[in-house]
Amino acid sequence: MTKKIVIKIGGTAAAQLTPAFFETIKNWQKQHAKIVIVHGGGNHISSLMAQLNEPIQKINGIRFTTQNGINITKMALLGQVQPALIEAFRQNAVSAIGLNAGSNQLLTGHVLDQDVYGYVGAIHQVNTQLIHNMWQQHLVPIIAPLAISNDGQWLNVNADHAATAIAKYLQADELYLLTDVSGVKVSGNILQELTPEKALELQTSNIITGGMIPKINSALDAVQRGVHNVHITNTVTHPGTIVTL
Ligand SMILES: Nc1ncnc2c1ncn2[C@@H]1O[C@H](COP(=O)(O)OP(=O)(O)O)[C@@H](O)[C@H]1O
Ligand SMILES: CC(=O)N[C@@H](CCC(=O)OP(=O)(O)O)C(=O)O
């Protein structure tokens, strides 16, 4: 059976992709795996916001986003981060196509909690047919973490949440959350495995903080929705922390 693999590449991880990463992608493709990339870029959004004097505020790893913040987020993700990734894929001879929420209604969402997060979205619909069409053309979709609401409002979506939603709607077999650390750390050691009980314990004791919170919640959500293999790691060649039930 054809394996479906979703790889989320965080903003820092995107700048550190190695030849081994692209070799792995090509090997998976030879084995007829279907691959989707969801990119982050929080670091680029923050530096553009700083340049444009937009306040930066995060609540449990989620960015509070004003309407001006949404405009800046689109500039960073669609103007900087996605083109750089597309170029990296081209240089490494992997055929890819950049997509966003507006690509034939790829990602539709609703406001998560306007009072708490502003224009931040949760995805409730994915045009999976478009992704299947791209796969038929042997293209790797590279998708930005944005959604559009039913009434046309663009929304900022945490990239871990976006990758999980896409993995769920595609009924993916594997989800890799690539970040700047090689897994979930406890007292300096990388956990090989993480269960929901352990995750709760680590969150309440403040061992899991900041951007690791949405990552772990996303990973658990994905496993609960039937994605068999979920990894938090810094490279596809290393399993990192495997999230299980
Ligand atoms: N227990 C933990 N183990 C590893 N990283 C953690 C932990 N708690 C918090 N973090 C932080 O989470 C960061 C990864 O989240 P984030 O910066 O949002 O990455 P990304 O941009 O790749 O999504 C790590 O660099 C680290 O600073
Ligand atoms: C709502 C929200 O938090 N959106 C994220 C989207 C980018 C992201 O998640 O990028 P990383 O994966 O590199 O952290 C943000 O504005 O930073």
Could you explain the architecture of this structure?
The chain has 245 residues and is of the alpha/beta class. The protein has a single domain, classed as 3-Layer(aba) Sandwich (Carbamate kinase). Helix content is 40%, strand content 24%. It has helices at residues 11-14, 19-30, 42-51, 67-91, 114-117, 128-136, 159-170, 196-204, 212-224; strands at 4-9, 34-39, 58-59, 62-63, 96-99, 107-111, 121-126, 140-143, 146-148, 154-156, 174-178, 185-186, 189-190, 193-194, 229-233, 241-243. Strand 12 and strand 13 form a beta hairpin. The protein is globular, with a radius of gyration of 17 Å. The model has no long low-confidence stretch (mean pLDDT 97). It catalyses: N-acetyl-L-glutamate + ATP = N-acetyl-L-glutamyl 5-phosphate + ADP.
